Amino acid sequence: MMNRIAIGTGIAATVAVGATLLLATPASAYTYSALGGTVTHSGGPSASYHHPSQQHQIGVGTSKGVYRSAFVAAGKTVAVEVTGPVYGPFTYQPAVR
Amino acid sequence: MIQRLIAPFAVLVLLLAGCAASDAEPVPSFTAADGVVFSGPWAKEFSDAYREAKSSFVKRVLKDGKVSDGEFAEMEEQFRSCLADASVGFDGFGFGGTVETKNLGGVSTEGNFAALERCSDETGEYPISPLYYQPKSNPQNLDGPTITAECFVKRKVVPPGYSAKDYERDAPGSTFPFTDEKAGAEALEICTYDPLGLLGEE
After folding, report:
1. Which of B129, B173, B186 is facing A40, going by the closest CB pair?
2. Which residues of B touch A27 (CB under 8 A)?
3. Strand partners, B31
4. By the CB < 8 Å criterion, does A59 face chain B?
5. Beta carbons within 10 angstroms of residue B165's beta carbon
6. pLDDT digits (tens, 9 = 90+) for B120-168
7. Contact: B113, A66; criterion CB under 8 Å
8. Does residue A4 register a pLDDT over 50?
9. Which residues contact B121 (CB under 8 A, 6 or more apart)?
10. Is A89 a residue whose pLDDT tops 70?
11. CA B57/CA B70 separation, integer angstroms
């Protein structure tokens, strides 16, 4: 479960499966868009996405790549959480199906 | 006289028979537009996805009401190939169907996001991936908020007694009352993708 995967090549960017990013430079920008659901932001570089009626997911993009959650069923909340300094700017991209 | 005695008894027997029949769990069954019948706990999801599928590959995969390991691997390879053509690196699906990709060959993060969406559509990653993982993690298609709340309680990240109603109240704003933030974040991921602990990736 807690295997780590590198984002990018030869950088200190890792993702704990669980959508926790451990990157190397402070983020400078966050952008969010909610496609009919609710994207929450608790003041740090983390986000969750909830949609009441459709399958949905959320991705986080850094300068090195993208981590995308799995699809989850309607009514569930899916979260990505960035911990520590990060490569930025980075973006969150929610999606519904 | 005998008829008068038998009639109420017959009615009682019929009523009891009706009760017995209604106690049995009905097996959901849905018929797609071209007559393909789906049955079982995930019948509606498969039927909906089959009806909406435009690709013959996706229709073939979904037609028997399940996604086999081989079919999933076939889609995964197509997804990998599609992303590679767009200079996006992908090493296979993670826990519950998560995806991690790398920007290769000068592709931008925006280009990466766009390739992910396009390749998901072109290869059938959606709906194949969720219809592979979700039935595996919840074979009886039990109520999501209920089993997720139970998973939180089992992991001791919320007070005992935390219920489906509590989850439904907290989920839209992600205001779960986790007693420990780090353990809560981990539980949120595990309980979202694998509430019953059936994926075996923990």
Report:
1. B173
2. none
3. B37
4. yes
5. 11
6. 999 999 999 999 999 999 999 999 999 999 999 999 999 999 999 999 9
7. yes
8. no
9. none
10. no
11. 13
Residues A48, B29: Cα–Cα separation, whole Å = 34
What letter would DSSP give residue A69? P
CB neighbour list of residue B196: distance below 8 Å, 6 or more residues apart: B137, B138, B142, B147, B151
Higher pLDDT, A86 or B70: B70
What mean pLDDT comes out for the span A53-80? 89
Cis, bond preceding A89 (omega within 30 deg of 0): yes
What's the residue count for chain B?
Answer: 202
Boundaries of every domain in chain B? 37-137, 144-193
pLDDT for B182: 86
- B27-B55-B58-B34 Cα dihedral, nearest 10 degrees: 20
User: What mean pLDDT do residues B77-97 have?
Assistant: 96
What is the DSSP secondary structure assignment for residue A62, as one 8-state letter? Answer: -
User: For residue B75, what is the enclosing H or E element?
Assistant: helix B69-85
Report chain A residues whose CB lies below 8 A from the CB of B99.
Answer: 59, 66-68, 70
Q: CA B197, CA B25: separation in Å to the nearest integer? A: 24
Nearest to B133 among A18, A70, A75 (CB): A70
Provide ipTM, 2 decimals.
0.81
List the one residue out of B28, B25, B22, B21 whose CA is nearest residue B42: B28
Separation CA B39–CA A61 (nearest Å): 39
Q: Phi/psi zone of residue B178: left (φ > 0), alpha (ψ -120 to 50 degrees), beta?
A: beta
